[in-house]
Structures are given as C-alpha cells and as structure tokens.
Amino acid sequence: MADDKWANPQKMWDERFAQAEPVYGEQPNAYLCAQSLRLTPGCKILVPGDGYGRNGLWLARQGFQVSTVDLSPVGVERAHKSAQAAGLAMSIEEADLATWTWPVAEFDAVASIFLHLPPDIRAQIHAQMLAAVKPGGLLIIEAFTPAQLQHSSGGPRQLDLLCTADILREDFRPAEALELLEVEIDLDEGRLHRGRAAVVHGVFRRQ
Ligand SMILES: C[S@@+](CC[C@H](N)C(=O)[O-])C[C@H]1O[C@@H](n2cnc3c(N)ncnc32)[C@H](O)[C@@H]1O
Predict the structure, then answer these.
(1) Does the pTM of the predicted model rise above 0.85?
(2) pLDDT level of residue 109 (50, 70, 90 thresholds)
(3) Ligand 1 within 6 A of 71 CB?
C-alpha cells in the first residue's frame, strides 16, 4: 500500500527537518563510520541525500573533502548553519538528484545512507552515483529492506521504496561488491531511527 507522505517528498522532508530536534540524531550513521576506515584520509566524498548534514558534517570533521546534495531546502539550510558554526569547509547543495547534473569520476567515495528512491528513478540515480566515483573508488550504502515493514524503527512503509541486496547488485553492476548483505541491526540514530531494524549493507568498488 502507498504511503501518502511520499507523494510530496520535499514537503515531507522539510517538515521533518523543521523540527528543532534532529530526528536522526546529531551523530553520524554507524555503518558509514565503520566503513570510513576503508577510505584514504583526506579523500573526496559525495554524500547524496544528506538531510540536515549529520553524515557530511562528521566526514568533514574527520578531514575528508565533502560534498552533499539534498532535496530539502530546510535540511540544506540547517546543514549550512551547522557547517558554518563548526567552521567546516564543505560543499552543501540543494538539488533533486533525479535532475542534478551528476559529476563523472570525480569522487573517491560516495556514501548513500537511507536514501530511499522511487523505482522509476532509483536505477538511474544509482547508476549516476556509481559513475560519480573514480575507478577504484568506493560506494557505501545502507538502506532498509522489505523486512523492515515488520519493524517500527523507521523507513518508508511502502514496499517499492525499500531495497534488497539483489536490487543493489543489479543497480551497481559491474562494480565489485566488497560487502553486500541483508542484516538485522539495533538502530539508535535519533527518535525516527531507533530499535530493531532490517537493512542492507553494501560496499562496492568501481572498476
Ligand atoms: C531518511 S532521510 C536520510 C538523511 C540522511 N542520509 C541521514 O541519514 O541522516 C532521506 C534524505 O534523502 C533526501 N532525498 C530523497 N529523495 C531525494 C532526491 N530525489 N534528491 C535529493 N535528495 C533526496 C531527503 O531530502 C532526505 O534528506
């Protein structure tokens, strides 16, 4: 069954990010933190769909050169303010990834965290995400799977917005999957991402 909120995604994200509380917390995503150990210090990372910037800000604090892109003007404004307050130099852009001019072979890594896209644009955006990575670079992704519909720890309540390992393998072909698995985790990332959760974890190397 379709979840009505997703009919106007920008409005939905703006309303969420307008709340004073950081709904996904201030801390970065745990999977991204763990996988960042694979990255060369100071390398160039693109974070598409970074919301109010919790992951991009953390990566910038670690010394990476960070670019983020998000659909939500409210999220982007909030990320700008946080970066400014912290004295972090990073690129924070407001755009719809479906129409954005994606760079090609420009980043050492792309990190897509809980960016759930409708099926009509998902494969295209995933292909552009991979193409934005330099040959030999990495694409790191975490997303909810259909098994998440049994949990109440966040994510879309709409089957076709959820991701599987098979979908990612297909979308990111011919990249090499260094890690690709569907797992149950205990999520603790703000009020909207808390509790037992079913996710897919992926790290792909562009050929
Ligand atoms: C669940 S939130 C996750 C935010 C962030 N990745 C995090 O983990 O805190 C999904 C984000 O994807 C963004 N998003 C969804 N569709 C998008 C699109 N077509 N273009 C750009 N951003 C999009 C939303 O604005 C929102 O910030």
Answers:
(1) yes
(2) very high
(3) yes
Q: Which of 13, 66, 110 to mutate to test the pocket of ligand 1 (most atoms within 8 A of CB)?
A: 13
CA 158 – CA 58 distance, rounded (Å): 30
Q: Please tell me if the CB atom of residue 156 comes closer than 6 angstroms to any atom of ligand 1.
A: no
Q: Pick the residue whose CA is nearest to atom 3 on ligand 1.
A: 114
Complete edge-to-edge strand list for the sheet that includes strand 107-113: 91-94, 65-70, 44-48, 107-113, 133-144, 194-205, 176-188
> What is the Å distance from ligand 1's center to 114 Cα?
7
Closest CA to 180 of 146, 205, 153: 205
pLDDT digits (tens, 9 = 90+) for 189-207: 999 999 999 999 999 999 9
Ligand 1 centroid to residue 49 C-alpha, Å: 4
Distance CA 5, CA 202 (A): 27
For residue range 85-100, list pLDDT tens digits in order: 999 999 999 999 999 9
